[in-house]
């Protein structure tokens, strides 16, 4: 209970930046869902080596929904996550994210869009020379100097929610795999992203830490309207989703 209250008060202290984003969010929310994918195809490679990884994907995700994506290894889950997350461009169809068409969008548009997103990928890519809290700070830096007011408090708070309050000043080399993963999660979430893309975020975590992470994502969805698309093989967290979608051989199919 205290945790939720503490979290809410931290949210309110994000002040101007947060208020502006909340307003922008409600405008977007009135206009259309967070994610609308229609007939999207994605191919790796060129010429003879060209291989289709996504086939005619149709997927709509509303604001504040937490969607879990499942499917066998190689079915295209990471590819779809990166296509919607502005890291790869679909070669056919339409991918609309927060009201912006991504197919054919220029690089400047994609860069601006990525700042509004949070990514939790398995290769956590922490900076080796930065402490845990300095790594988390990077999640605020992309929003410019005004986002850095009281950065230490915000970053420490987020690390505290993830159970790392006594590891703030540790370098990554002195953290376990699961602790590094949680630092990366804190970095992805501290800037209050509008959409979170998470690829197996709990895979490196024990049951309890995995639950903390999924509960945090659930709370962000409920309290801040954060939209979340999460890939997992972890059956224990399926009950936290609003909806489960299933990929097979690059196609969305009815869940098995
Ligand atoms: N960089 C790449 N170049 C060529 N083919 C790729 C590349 N990345 C992925 N693929 C292929 O695209 C298909 C989908 O891969 P993807 O990584 O999206 O699967 P996935 O569902 O995330 O699998 P996993 O559960 O193992 O992470 C696979 O057949 C894979 O071999
Ligand atoms: Mg994958």
Mean pLDDT: 89
Morphology call: globular
Determine the number of helices (DSSP H or I, runs of at least 4 residues): 8
The assigned CATH architecture is 3-Layer(aba) Sandwich
Q: Which strand order spans the largest sheet, edge to edge or round the barrel?
A: 6-7-8-3-9-10
Fraction of residues in β-strands: 15-25%
Find the CATH topology: Rossmann fold
CATH superfamily heading: P-loop containing nucleotide triphosphate hydrolases
Radius of gyration, whole Å: 18 Å
Number of structural units classed as domains: 1
Largest sheet, strands/sense/barrel: 6 strands, mixed
User: Could you estimate the helical fraction of the residues in percent?
Assistant: 25-40%
Unreliable parts:
1-15
Classified by CATH, the class is: Alpha Beta
Helices and strands, in order, run as HHEEEHEEHEHHHEHEEE
Bound molecules: adenosine-5'-triphosphate, magnesium ion
The structural class is alpha/beta
